[in-house]
Amino acid sequence: MITQMMIDAGWSQPLTIAVSLIAVLAIILGLWSISILFANLMEGKVKKWAGKTKNRIDDFLVGAKVFRSLAQIVVALLLYNYLSVLFVGEKTVEHLTELFGNAYFVVALAYALCAFLDAWIIYISKTRVRSLPLKGFVQAVKYIVVAGAALCLLAIFTGTSPLYILSGLGAAMAVLLIVFKDSLLGLTAGLTIMINDLVRKDDWIEIPGQAVDGVVNDITLTTVKIINWDNTVACVPSYTLVSTSIRNWRGMTDAKARRIKRAFRVDLRTIHIATEEEIAKLKSAFPQIETSFYEIPQTTNLALFRAFCKNYLKNHPGIRNDLSVIVRQLDSDVWGLPIEIYAFSKTTDFEPHEELAARLIEYFITVAPEFSLKIHQR
């Protein structure tokens, strides 16, 4: 109607179209300003409401700006339904406003869906499911949403069906596979990791042949971020976790037991059959050794020492006595006879575990002379 009034007033058609387009831009800017005010108002109200509730989901939605994106959908619906009505009769302007309304609705909808997925990523990082490799799948869904939105926009501006455009992409599929190779391999690896429960966030892993020995900090669609024990950061492709051999120490953490495997060497020349005097002395000095060990014919001082070490380990408050506790000999060489301590500590933390292992070895080395044994050193 407004366009017809300008034509009746003697305005030229190019001038009429130009004024109409300026009017369209003014209306769009006005609606955009209204959408910002509406979004800020909605977000402020929702923040106050979310702060009063105990449920954390609404906090995640606010943090991902989901409600702000929903306000954009409201504006997009207004543009889609009413903008072209203002310019009925002017086909060029009406067509442009219809294209813009459709495109804006697609973008607003994709933005809202991505905001919901961002909220889901925040939920994953803040709750118990953070150990599962779900972040990569959410990122894959975001890629699909963005790709779908781009496809719809292309269909809107070209005036063709999205299915027709998809059929035309068949020739370019080889190029797309090369471009998105890491993403596709990462998605496949993510499925394998989740189904087989290979790696979780906060797992301690090692990858032989690579400078990777630390804790998994993040698992995304294409990469895995590991914080090494020397505080360096290693980023490896997700597919590496299923294509190469890795060592995962999660079983140690779940079992709440960490292995102690240390050895020291005894001088072979100090090993001998224990005499009656030595046995009597050791009985009074170390009554915790079982009597049966003393009664073994031709028992050696080393056998009694190993029995003492094993008994000490089994009764130590820091050792898991329900798991293997072994004091064994290794193959002897020119440097002596290695005696290995094999047990499991109750702590899995590095510092207290190492402190316990060191104290045990230090104590056994100190006690060895009581059994007439000499610790060998070059």
Discrete helix count? 15
Instruction: Give the count of structural domains.
Output: 3
Helix content: 55-70%
Structural class: alpha+beta
Number of strands: 8
Low-confidence stretches: none
Strand content: 5-15%
Structure description:
- With 378 residues, this protein is an alpha+beta fold.
- It folds into three domains: 2-126, no CATH class; 152-254, SH3 type barrels (Roll); 256-371, Alpha-Beta Plaits.
- 58% of the residues lie in helices and 12% in strands.
- It has 15 helices and eight strands.
- A five-stranded antiparallel beta sheet has the order 4-3-2-1-5, with no helix packed on it. A three-stranded antiparallel beta sheet has the order 6-8-7.
- Helix 2 (13-52) runs antiparallel to helix 4, helix 3 (57-63) crosses helix 5 and helix 4 (66-83) runs antiparallel to helix 5 (91-126).
- The relative contact order is 0.06.
- The mean pLDDT is 77.
Topology of this protein?
Blueprint lengths: L1 H7 L4 H40 L4 H7 L2 H18 L7 H36 L8 H24 L3 H7 L4 H7 L1 H16 L7 E4 L4 E8 L3 E6 L4 E5 L2 H4 L3 E2 L1 H6 L2 E9 L9 H10 L5 H4 L6 H14 L11 E4 L7 E9 L4 H18 L11
Antiparallel strand pairs: 1-2, 1-5, 2-3, 3-4, 6-8, 7-8
Helix pairs in contact: 2-4, 3-5, 4-5, 5-6
